[in-house]
Each structure stands twice: as C-alpha cells, then as structure tokens.
Amino acid sequence: MTIDNPYIKRQLMETIVLVEEKGQKLRYSGIQPGVYARSHAVSTDKGNVVYVEGEDYVIDCKAGTISRTRRSRIPDWGNHPVYGIKGFDHRDYPDYSNRDYMIYIDYDYESEDEVNEGISVLAPVNTLDRLIRKLEAGQPLRYIVFGDSISAGGDASRDEFAFYNLFADDLRARYPEAELEVINKALGGEGSTTALERLEQDVIALKPDLVSIGYGMNDQCTMGPDIRNGIPPGIFEENIRKMVLQIQRKTDAEIVLVTPCISNPLWKHSSGDLAIYADILLRLSRELGTGVADVHALWMQELQAGKSHESMLLNNVNHPGDYGHTIYFKAFGHLIP
C-alpha cells in the first residue's frame, strides 16, 4: 500500500495478547482500515493463521483498541497458567511463555506529526562518529554483541529479527560499500560480574570496531528475601565502568551501552529497580563518552501508551519478542544520524 499522506504511518509486527472479549490497547490510535492480524510474525510460516476482522476480533479505530469476539479463534490469554498470579516463579510452570497466545498485527494509523514517534523521548547522546567514518570509507568492520540472553537474541522468532541484526542490516543498507561482520558473544543468564571476567577473551581479543553492552536485567533480579538485587547497583556500575575503560584503552571500538527493557512486575524475580540500572548506564555513557541505546525509556513510553507487559514479553518474564526487538533497534537509530 502506498501512503501519500505524511501523517499516516505504518506499524508492523506489533504483538499483543487478548483476554476474553476485553479491549486491549494497541500502541497507536487513529487506526486506518485494513488491519492484518495473524498468529506468526511471517505470514508464510507453517501453521500461520490469518484472523478475520469481525469474526475473530473487533477494532475500535479511534481508541486504538482490539478485542476478541465471543467465537474468536484467537487464543484467550486468560487461560494462561500464570494469568493474574502475583509473584509467580517461572520455574514452577512447564510452559510459562506467551508464544501460544501472542498475535501479530500490521496496521496504518494517523500520527499527530511527521516525526517518528518514540525518538523524542531520548536524551541527547554521543553519536558513533568514528564508526560512521569507517563505514563511509567502506572499511571492513567487526561488531561484537556482548550481553545477557536478550543480546543473545531471546526471544526473537528468527535471527534476522534480533535487534543487533536489525541494526547491522540497517547499517549495511545505509553503507553498502562497507563490510560489516557481526559476532555474538552474549550469554543467557549472565550478569555483569562474570561478563567482566571474560571481556578480554570474548571482546577485546577480537579487535572490534563496535561493541554493544547489554546488562542489567539479570543483575537486578531479586534472589530471595535478603537479596534484593543479584548484583547491587554499585557493583554493577563499577563492572560496566571497567568494561568500557578496558575496551577504550585496548581497542579503537565505539561502544553502545544498552539499557534494559522492563521485566514483568508479576514475576517473582522482578525487583522493580530496572530504572536504577538504566540510569547508571545513561550516566556512564555521559561520563565515559560512549553511545547509549535507551531501550528502557522507549519501553516505558510503550507502557504509558497502554501496551501491556505481557504483549511485549514473549516469555512473559523478561525477554522481548519480535516487537520488543524492534523497540531495541529503534533505540539505536539516533546513533547514526
């Protein structure tokens, strides 16, 4: 579909879970006719179900809400085993994810202005000037992805939908003469302390041109009544500072600190302190002159617009799905003007 009106924007692969016949807010209102809802991110995937407006769901275009019909084929998230349970421990459930309940929606909507929504929430930060010069010169570049399970790609449905590949593909499209290699050295379940221990071997020794560092989600986890955070904010700050200083001292790499998204507040291990960890990363980026991808700010903006935690966390705990990875990618956008 060709859109001539600059105020009409396109939203792709937004995810949502629906309960009974209750309306659930989509990211935007002012929705235009022609909504496309389905069970899989890619419509050609085996088993994909295309849902029919009026039969499976109802859209309130002005309010920007969607709801199931009484006889809808869309799975009712109210049947999820942890629905409504406060303080649930994912280890108590064989399948705690939202994979079987989440649907994907494409739609056009009327925006209030021509500017991409979400970018204005980001504070001014350092851009990746050295990297840009290398890209413009068509040099071969190496991008090391360093972080926890989110940086490892969880829970993107395909590798190409993981935020770091979205970013790398965007760079390749902008600078087709450059050769960009992506090496993922992220480890699921890892916090910043063990990451610091392997920094030399898994990052510095590879002579990167770009490093993204994504920690905080596991560091913040409540581990019991006497351990509010697995890695307290003060130690987290020193770990990240040491990582950045070592990379800066031993390589010519640009560094991007990635603030974490927001975990499900109903999850047993959510401390509610992720904003503290995000603020630390923002402060360190200013202090040490790195780039920053402030995912946390954009994620908060999504929630304030009415999106639910469960609609963005595919594992229902702390992993973004495909839509969540696009939010991560959006947070990188302003680093390359």
UniProtKB/TrEMBL annotation:
<dbReference type="InterPro" id="IPR036514">
    <property type="entry name" value="SGNH_hydro_sf"/>
</dbReference>
<dbReference type="InterPro" id="IPR051532">
    <property type="entry name" value="Ester_Hydrolysis_Enzymes"/>
</dbReference>
<dbReference type="Pfam" id="PF13472">
    <property type="entry name" value="Lipase_GDSL_2"/>
</dbReference>
<dbReference type="InterPro" id="IPR008265">
    <property type="entry name" value="Lipase_GDSL_AS"/>
</dbReference>
<dbReference type="InterPro" id="IPR013830">
    <property type="entry name" value="SGNH_hydro"/>
</dbReference>
<feature type="domain" description="SGNH hydrolase-type esterase">
    <location>
        <begin position="145"/>
        <end position="326"/>
    </location>
</feature>
<dbReference type="GO" id="GO:0006629">
    <property type="term" value="P:lipid metabolic process"/>
</dbReference>
<dbReference type="GO" id="GO:0004622">
    <property type="term" value="F:phosphatidylcholine lysophospholipase activity"/>
</dbReference>
<protein>
    <recommendedName>
        <fullName>SGNH hydrolase-type esterase domain-containing protein</fullName>
    </recommendedName>
</protein>
